[in-house]
Specification:
heterodimer; B: alpha+beta; 5 helices; 21% strand
């Protein structure tokens, strides 16, 4: 059976060159970067090379990079740490309604700690209006956190415009760039932001490693207390092999970004166009143009995502869904609901995310196996039979 | 994939008794698309027995397997026996359901029960 992985938004495979770069650090170069001998020196030098590579990817300074254990950690660190560092100035934070849970739940934790939280809405495409950010600002606002792009619906947010507003009002702006850093060009200076999160497993680096970039001079409360690793802001012996891998992945992403985008955009645009043409009652979610290059998301009416996922998997195809049944919490995607998509339709969410290994034949295969799956589940669906009866009765 | 038993997977891949019954003796609906699962059961009753049971289900793998299992367990049973089918007995027959799916997806027994109640109320209504 053909095996087709279309879930790169969940995680990417390791690039062979990344794996190669990591290998010595899983073997002979095992030293602790804090140690004051040759073993330590080897590890410390590797760490600093990686810091430079990650900084270069996003146009920041090497000394502004803090390595973390994941994108989620970077977001927790940024939202809580940046807010806490400024609590004498004010206790109001602003995030969008479609943030990743690592931002949203961190913001909710701040609420429990006495902060006030404003959620900025999005339109039907998942776009934040910069003016809505402006309206949400108060005298005591200390932090705005808006994602660069949404991993569920692919929409890219107008961060540059939002940054102009936060700068005018002297408010720190953090952006969760987990979906964009290493995928599309990201430059912290051009964006005009103060802090940015990224994660290695989104661009062919290893899992369990991320980074937080902070503009020099921005204050943050340490996330983990302990030793002086990462300038005392993130204590704990560094995950050297993973950090080396992150660095290499960043270097490769910076070099290959244009070619990767071209390849991914072709695959994406074909599926965005051909899937709704091939299956009735399918809607594209997210922005039609202003979206991540390898990202095609839909809602299929009258049926539920998990059952589609299971049948696609039995045909060798791996995708994601934002349906309630696919989430541990059994709640429909907060992103789709914030975009005004009705619950029943949100249940039929499907997300295809492409990577460097995908070929046009993978799209052919999806277009071949998905229609009978949808048909089969619709034949089983009481919502579909109601729809058919009503449309017959009406017409 | 969600952690489903082989039995759940088997019923999901080959669900029994999918469909509707024309002029059913009873219809029962449970759940709603907001929570993610919705089931409609149709029954045909003869001599106090479930001569035919069919269903339509909107929902996850567990919901489809549950519906299929309930229809199989109920078919041929007397109404009294069929009313003893519970979410627990359905889950047991399926060799277990994931904890978080037990309540939301395990609506088959209730939907069947509603169909039987529908039949009974029509019957007594007819006698009156």
């Amino acid at each position: 059976m053909r095996k087709v992985y279309l879930d790169y938004a969940a995680t990417t495979p390791l690039h062979p060159e990344v794996r190669q770069a990591m290998m010595p650090f899983l073997a002979e170069t095992f030293g602790n970067p804090s140690s004051l001998h040759d073993w330590g020196d080897g590890a410390r030098e590797a760490l600093e090379v990686a810091r430079g590579q990650v900084a270069q990817l996003i146009g920041g300074g090497a000394e502004e990079i803090i390595f973390t254990g994941s994108g989620t950690e970077s977001n927790n660190f940024a939202v809580k740490g940046l807010a806490l560092a400024q609590q004498n100035k004010g206790k109001h934070v602003v995030v969008s309604a479609i943030e990743h849970f690592s931002v949203l739940h961190s913001a909710k934790t701040l609420e429990k700690w006495g902060f006030e939280l404003s959620l900025v809405p999005v339109d039907k495409y998942g776009l934040v209006a910069p003016e809505d950010v402006r309206k949400s600002l108060r005298k005591d606002t200390v932090l705005v956190s808006i994602m660069h792009a949404n991993g569920e619906v692919g929409t890219i947010e107008p961060i540059r415009e939002i940054a102009r507003i936060t700068k005018e009002n002297n408010v720190v702006l953090h952006t969760d760039a987990v979906a964009t850093a290493g995928t599309i060009p990201v430059n912290v200076k051009e964006l005009g932001i103060d802090a940015l999160s990224l994660a290695g497993n989104q661009f062919y680096g290893p899992k369990g490693v991320g980074a937080l970039w902070m503009r020099k001079g921005v204050r943050i409360i340490p996330f983990l207390d302990g030793g002086v690793q990462e300038e005392g802001r993130r204590a704990g012996t560094e995950n050297v092999p993973a950090i080396v891998g992150l660095g290499k992945a960043a270097e490769l992403a910076a070099t290959d970004v244009t070619a990767r985008i071209e390849h991914l955009t072709q695959l994406r645009d074909r599926l965005l166009k051909e899937l709704p043409a091939k299956i009735e009652h399918v809607v594209v979610t997210g922005h039609p143009q202003n979206r991540l290059p390898g990202h095609a998301s839909f809602c299929v009416e009258f049926i539920e995502g998990e059952s589609m996922l299971m049948l696609l998997n039995s045909n060798g195809v791996a995708v994601s869904s934002g349906s309630a049944c696919t989430s541990r919490a059994l709640k429909a995607s907060h992103v789709l609901i914030a975009m005004g998509i009705p619950h029943a339709l949100a249940q039929g969410s499907l997300l295809f995310s492409f990577g460097t290994d995908n070929a046009p034949e993978d799209i052919d295969y999806v277009l071949e196996v998905l229609p009978p799956i949808v048909d089969r589940l619709r034949q089983m669906s009481p919502l579909y039979s109601k729809f058919i009866k009503e449309s017959r009765g009406g017409g | 994939m969600p952690v489903y038993s082989e039995k759940v997977m088997e019923h999901f891949m080959n669900p029994r008794n999918v469909g509707e019954i024309e002029n059913p003796d009873g219809v029962g609906e449970e759940g709603n698309p907001v929570c993610g699962d919705m089931m409609t059961f149709y029954i045909k009753v003869k001599d106090d027995r479930l001569e035919d049971v069919k269903f339509k289900t909107f929902g996850c793998g567990a919901a489809i397997a549950v519906s299929s299992m309930v229809s199989e367990m109920a078919k041929g049973k007397t109404l009294k026996e069929a009313m003893k089918i519970t979410p627990r007995s359905v889950a047991d027959e399926l060799k277990g359901l994931p904890k978080n799916k037990f309540h939301c997806s395990n609506l088959g027994a209730q939907a069947l029960n509603k169909a039987i109640q529908d039949y009974l109320s029509k019957k007594t209504g007819g006698k009156k």
